[in-house]
């Protein structure tokens, strides 16, 4: 009988559980700081200007994808198609512009349009057809990869216009790509933390049924989040195309799982409603610094993967433990 | 009443138990005999489940003693209860659908061969033996998912009885069964009794009690109203014992101020309700009573746009409104406080603040940005209006007590000043103090001209708060009672038979509760 349930004290118990709350909220920043100190001892070369710039550039590419991925995770979703969208963007830029700077705006518009379509497809599958996000976005990934190979007959051609080289330049000590990442992070933080839209994202992720019964237009929120995620993947694809400067049909490989890893290491829960963008920024930096340190230490690629895997599993294990007891 | 005849196997004496100040059991004495069925009946919250959980060792009593097979215990542990042959069969089935009957019965205790592998031969032979002993006509090799619910329940019972059992508690075993499946259950109970087992049978359905029980104990508000041999009672007497007016519960008084019609529903039909006609007036509280499954919650969901209307028209303040989504209902001025606040009303891991202001965010913005101060003021207002006890608005809502959580759900809607509020079990699982505060709030809202539709399984609440009572049965509204003419017996008659009968007519059964 429900009436017999022992009532909890009306006080804010989070005070009692403050250490766990601290872990949940700030653990990722502590980890990042620790990593930076470790680097000071083991790989001081990391702090060379050249290496720092490189880390920021690469972090920017992953960071852009991870922004969108974080939004999707916050609504208890998942987007496995971001890597495919990155490749798609790269191929579209090269095919449509064929290296002609004048045709770059058209190429970007096509890429953004296709990205929005991919997001729409993901979102519609999830909202209208109730397909689990994992399956929906995996299916869409396979579809766009296949469509792109069919279109290019497996041999993508064309060139990346050299105007995109702008992302490799620097403003003062900061790479342009990093500034783009910082700009988008600021924009989406504004959206997420200061506007009603952000509150709705958290509400939908925390409890979809309660959100619906509170009068929220849940499907609209979900759909918009998937579209935004795909558009951020296009943004990452543009920066990445400028970074490598050529067409490469394996370009997006790894970004799907890495972006999820960055968000999760940063404290965003798979179950939705918990986490945020600043944690993801720290998560991106951790993943990037870890891989740079491994390179500087001369570790094999295999070892890098093992390290990355360990960090992700450890982070998730810690969060789940803290969340369970909190 | 607790005569100690030689075959008394279990006696619970003066058991008391309190939870956070609420006295769930106030000195309950109860005994049962081997080879007999003892029915335990009473309204929701009467203390039946608490008493049985003490027997199972899930709760420790504050005082009193248990005498079981001649031994005295001040409390039992779950281990002691199990080892001594006390078994509880809960309503919910915990079976693995793709595994066979035998595999389910021996799940986790499978017989092993010398090599440590599962001894399949022995597994099926043992299962066969158990089913034969219980006289259950089941195929041990059939996957459980292919069985009817009644037969699945047999498997659950067989699982509980695969080891020695002397006392078996069945907690509303018939709740999940259709009428024709009851006989199966009864034959199982009868075969248990023949083998000398003591069966404690909890049910809301009186016809079952009269059919299989030897003795019946009625609990109300944590006390025993009486224990009688079943032959000594009539249905009318038993109902009287169960519902006898509660003096503990008080309801705030208010003059009904019935104003103009606000919500008019004509001929609404959905998958679960049929041909609903009703009118809610400003300033009145309309109680919606009925058994579980009678369509009360489904009607609320239909009026809130959460379930699709197949036909019918809804007017709000004289205008036809389309209710194809909750968002439309909310925009039209309808609010719903759902049945289960944890899964439908709250965002448990989000701050109290976010829960309270979610429905009014657009009113708190300037240039699209949420104004922190306006939001803090809104939260503060809610805290004062509803006396929500919280240390900080930033705390996650899951750390609030049930009563305070329910107030948060209510406050979410109050800021929107809805014209119609639908409350589905508004005081379920909350303590008496918070209950009274919610009743007071309901009165205040009606004074402001809000129309309230209140669904409740607690008859005292329905009778105490409603200006009018609508009773549902099988998806239809079968009757309306004015406050003056409403009695628990009349509401129950309508809910169970669909019409008001002369007092002498037999009632087919009673259920006054949730699942």
Number of strands of chain B: 22
Total domains of chain B: 3
Name of the top-level CATH class of the largest domain in chain B: Alpha Beta
The neighbouring-strand order within the major sheet of chain B is 6-7-8-3-9-10
Number of domains of chain A: 1
Compute the gyration radius of chain A: what is it?
21 Å
Number of helices of chain A: 12
The proportion of residues forming helix of chain A, as a percent range, comes to over 70%
At CATH level 2, the architecture of the largest domain in chain B is 3-Layer(aba) Sandwich
Main sheet specs of chain B: 6 strands, mixed
Low-confidence parts of chain B, pLDDT < 50 over ≥5 residues?
503-515
Structural class of chain A: mainly alpha
In CATH terms, the superfamily of the largest domain in chain B is P-loop containing nucleotide triphosphate hydrolases
Mean pLDDT of chain B: 84
Distance between the termini of chain B: 31 Å
Strand arrangement within the widest β-sheet of chain A reads 1-2
Q: How many beta strands in the DSSP annotation of chain A?
A: 2
Folded structure, characterized:
The complex is a heterodimer of chains A (326) and B (515). Chain A has twelve helices and two strands; from the N terminus they run H-H-H-H-H-E-E-H-H-H-H-H-H-H. Chain A has 326 residues and is mainly α. Chain A has one domain (55-161, 174-325). In chain A, strands 1-2 form a two-stranded antiparallel ribbon. Chain B is α/β, with parallel strands linked by helices. In chain B, 31% of the residues lie in helices and 24% in strands. Chain B contains 17 helices and 22 strands. The two termini of chain B are 31 Å apart. At the A-B interface, helix 7 and helix 8 of A face helix 1, helix 10, helix 11, strand 18 and helix 14 of B.
